[in-house]
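Sequence in, structure out. Go.
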Amino acid sequence: MHPNQVSVDIQILQELFRKWSGRKPSAMEPIHGSGSARKYFRLQNGDLSAIGVCHDGYEENRAFLSFTRHFRSHGLPVPEIYAEDLKQNAYLLSDLGDISLFSLLEKNRGNEIFSSAKIEGIFRHVLDCLIRFQVVAGRDLDYSYCYTGEVFNTQSMRWDLEYFKYYFLKPSGLLFHDQKLEEDFDALTAFLAQAGSNYFMYRDFQSRNILMVKNNPYFIDYQGGRKGPLQYDLASLLFQAKAGLPEEFRDRLRDYYLDKLSAFVNFDRNEFIRYFHGFVLLRMIQVLGAYGYRGLFEGKAHFIQSIPHAVANIRWFLDNVSMPVKIPELEESLRHIVATRTYTSPVTLQDRLTVSIFSFSYKNSHPMDLSGNGGGYVFDCRSLPNPGKEAKYRYLSGKDLAVRVFMEEHEETGKFLEAVFQLIDNHIAQYTERKFSHLMVSFGCTGGQHRSVYCAEKLANHIRGKFSVPVELIHTGQSNWIAEPQL
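Output:
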């Protein structure tokens, strides 16, 4: 964010606050969001408090303000609009605080929270509101304000699927058949299109977008809404990656929703659930695409660290749901993701430094850093002599004695590793002193089989012999990840 633009935003919001309250704000502080380009500020003067929003997207701002007025007219718990200046892309909202339903779950995690009648009661209240958003308020909403298109149709679904393909699947380096995957995308979207799209679809109906005010839920971030199927928002809430709702809890809430929905809509319960599972899958795939873009491309730690949670959802789906439509290539791609070691073991914060050492093939992508630190050293081993060019080593790896002997016969191998050891030793000493929790080192070669594996093994042994730090060693060749246990 450019400093001059920040100054302009502050001035605009201060003037909106003055027009609304008759006073200048005595305090103003930024509120940091996770994935949005919108800029949020809390403005205060005495007992008065408001949330200021600045965002360059005029049509998105207009959609949010229009939807907010409409939802409030139906008595739905959404922010009050205090003031707005659409020409300058700014508006002022009531301050609903900082406690979200998600933060409430996080704070009480491990305390049998999902057996609590209070928490289930909150979720039931949330689902009551969801039905009112979808059916009651959705009935007479002016959908011409939808800035991403008025209907969530097959094209919208394809955008989500392609998002996943290009921002998660391809960067992962996992192998798949492109044409067969596209055919599965066609089959899945054609099936889901049969569910209809006659209701308001919130689009991002999840616990981070539900603020708790005196134990009552208030809803935000519905500006991406449009006409769509009922199942999508239910799937978004119940299968939110980091919320971690247990299966029995999800089932009870789903049944509660269907019971309450029957008072508003005539529908076949079994048919609803049949499509529901398909939208669960679509939402899971969309989330992986978003985590890939926001995390792997933009480097945002929150999204990188969320990937293992999203993958756990995918694993549950593959183990428990049989889709009524054949999508073999997509399912196989998802199985590869679930089997990929680096997606399933998030780096956790700890008091002690851990060193993660990877080998990889340059034919695929670099290993991901799930610590959120942006990665560490990447050493290119392709300048070293290549045993893979000789037939007798072709089916061996850098862990085999014959390959190790080959590598050590060449003087340049020793010089290369000596330089690597010196760099890493200095880093470990500094990181330990500064109480950092994670160091990542990667070695790459053409196939990820010989030179990179050899060098990764040598570094791991060197560190284990010199330092008292845990070392995690992970080898990848083509799309197969094999990890040694942490020592």
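Check: Residues 269-297 form the longest helix (29 residues). The chain has a mean pLDDT of 90.
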